[in-house]
Every structure is written in structure tokens, then in C-alpha cells.
Design goal:
With about 325 residues, this protein is an all-alpha fold. It has a single domain, classed as MetI-like (MetI-like fold). It contains 15 helices and two strands. Strands 1-2 form a two-stranded antiparallel sheet. Helix 10 runs antiparallel to helix 11. The chain is globular.
Length: about 325
């Protein structure tokens, strides 16, 4: 009897004072793990498995190995559209990194200035577009930029820039850039809030000494605050990467599944949609669609891995 009690005491000691038993923790974690497994892990594994199948002449599914990926990368019937979508998706991401995130940093810096009036109003106004439906945003911007009934041509003419107006959404060279800027306008409030939250959490002691030494607010921001919010900027960057390579809804809402003109706005999300479900004269191919989805997953996984292995390790090295 005493041996059993001693063993129970040792087990409780391992769990630590005040900590719930492991069985209780497992009981609370089980529902979340079950939901995550059913709605995330199982669909992912099923998609990868489907990407290795093909339909034979008899209409039966059979194992194809990497044949679908070889077709996707090297068969001109598939590879031209895939590489075009990948290049467009990369440009979509680069525009967000070059425009959205610097604007978000600047807005966060302005909102963190001491003595700024109506701070809450500006913060809410900037974030408000992120709460709107992408369909509504796409429709409104189509109306604004329309060369037939849009207001953009009249507004540009009023300030002497009427000669610069063009049907940007209808041109192959500018349609994707305009759609990217629409997305920037809608979602810039999210990284702005994340960076602003990091800025206001910086202890005042670090900036008060610089103010006493005569440093201005902008010098304090560049030399003290910006390095301290670098982890948050890194997080914003990887979230931008994941979101952009999962993008679909804005392109589909404005340009449809064909992502015109002439597939100039086609990204991996719309390419996957046409491949899996089919569209107009293109028949759907679930196995090839699963191959596209698997490639998208690998691209996103590689980007996250680079962030975790390189950026986070560098931050840990600079902050021992």
C-alpha cells in the first residue's frame, strides 16, 4: 500500500505542483485535435494521395506516381499555364511586400506618435476595408475604374492628369498590378495593426533617454523602435506570403475563372480552380487539380520553413 502511494506521489511530482494531470490535459486537447485532424490533416493527406492517381481508359482510378507532376511541369498543355500562374503569383506577392508592408510600417509609425489626435478614428478607418467582402471591394473598384461609367477619369481630369487615364483592368500589362493594389488597399490595415501593437508595447524608458539626448521622433523610430519590431515585421511578411499564394477570391470576383485578359491575372488559385472543377471548354481533372494544390502547399511550406530556419534563427542569434 505504501509503495503504491509513493509511486502516485512521484507521478504527481513529475507533473509539477499545481499542474493538472496529463489525462485531464489530453481530455481537453482531444476535441481540438480531432477537429484539426478531420478538417485539416485528413484533407491534406487525401489531396496528396489524389495527386498520385490518374484515370485510365476504362474510367478507373489507378496509381500514377509522379506522372501528374511531370505533366504539370513539362507537358506544354499544362506547363505553360502553370508557369504563367506561378510567375503572376510571385509578382502579386512582390507588389504586396514592396507596397503594402512599407505603407503599413509608415502608418503604424504615424499612429504611434505621441500627441496624435483622433488616433482611434484613423486606426478604425484604415482597418475598415479589411472587414468588407472581397466581392464588394472588387465590384466597387470595377465601377470606379470603368472607362464607361467610372469616376476615376473625371477625378484625374480635374487635377490635370486626365491624359494618364487608361482602362487598366483591360490591359494585359497593368491588370495584375491594379488588382494587387486593390488588395493592398483592402488589407493594409491588418499589418498596420500588428506593427502598431508592437510599437506601443515598446517600453517608454528606451525612448525617453533618446529624447533627453535630443533625438527626434523619426530618428528614434529608425534607430530604436524599428529594430525592436523586426520580429513582428517578419511575421507580417510570412503571413503576406501565405495569404498571397493562397489568393483566389479577388481575382475570381473581378476577372472570373479565366483571369483575363488572356490569363494575364491568372494565379495559382484560379489555375487550380479551372484544373480541378473545369471551366467552359476545359474539363475538370481532380487528380491534376490535386497536383496543383500539392505544389501550392509545398511552395507555402518552403516559404514558412525559410522564415523559421533563417529569420527566426537570426533573431535568436542577435538576442542571446
Amino acid at each position: 500500500m505504501s509503495i503504491a502511494l509513493t509511486g502516485h506521489a512521484v507521478e504527481r511530482g513529475r507533473e509539477g505542483p499545481g499542474r493538472p494531470p496529463r489525462r485531464v490535459l489530453a481530455l481537453f486537447l482531444l476535441p481540438a485535435v480531432a477537429v484539426y485532424s478531420v478538417f485539416s490533416i485528413y484533407p491534406l493527406l487525401a489531396t496528396i494521395a489524389l495527386s498520385t492517381r490518374k484515370t485510365n481508359a476504362a474510367g478507373l482510378s489507378e496509381f500514377a506516381g509522379l506522372a501528374n507532376f511531370i505533366r504539370l511541369f513539362f507537358d506544354p498543355n499544362w506547363s505553360d499555364a502553370f508557369w504563367n500562374a506561378l510567375a503572376n503569383n510571385t509578382l502579386f506577392f512582390v507588389i504586396h511586400m514592396a507596397v503594402q508592408n512599407p505603407i503599413a510600417i509608415a502608418l503604424a509609425a504615424l499612429l504611434s506618435l505621441p500627441g496624435l489626435r483622433a488616433r482611434a478614428f484613423y486606426r478604425t478607418a484604415i482597418f475598415l476595408p479589411a472587414t468588407l467582402s472581397v466581392v464588394i471591394v472588387g465590384f466597387v473598384w470595377q465601377l470606379i475604374l470603368s472607362p464607361l461609367w467610372g469616376v476615376s477619369e473625371g477625378l484625374m481630369s480635374a487635377v490635370g492628369l486626365g491624359g494618364w487615364f487608361a482602362p487598366w483592368l483591360g490591359r494585359e500589362g497593368s491588370a495584375l498590378v491594379v488588382l494587387s493594389l486593390m488588395s493592398v488597399w483592402q488589407f493594409v490595415g491588418i499589418p498596420m495593426l500588428l506593427i502598431h501593437a508592437a510599437l506601443i508595447n515598446i517600453p517608454d524608458d528606451l525612448t525617453d533617454a533618446a529624447l533627453v539626448d535630443g533625438a527626434g521622433h523619426w530618428r528614434i523610430f529608425w534607430t530604436i523602435k524599428l529594430p525592436l519590431v523586426a520580429p513582428t515585421i517578419g511575421l507580417v511578411s510570412i503571413l503576406t506570403f501565405v495569404g498571397n499564394f493562397n489568393a483566389f477570391d479577388l481575382i475570381y470576383a473581378v476577372k472570373g475563372a479565366l483571369a483575363g485578359p488572356n490569363f494575364s491575372t491568372d494565379i495559382l488559385g484560379t489555375f487550380f480552380y479551372r484544373t480541378f472543377f473545369g471551366h467552359q471548354l476545359q474539363a475538370g481533372d481532380p487528380a491534376m487539380g490535386a497536383a496543383v494544390a500539392t505544389v501550392m502547399f509545398v511552395i507555402i511550406l518552403a516559404g514558412v520553413a525559410v522564415y523559421l530556419l533563417a529569420f527566426q534563427r537570426r533573431l535568436k542569434g542577435s538576442n542571446p
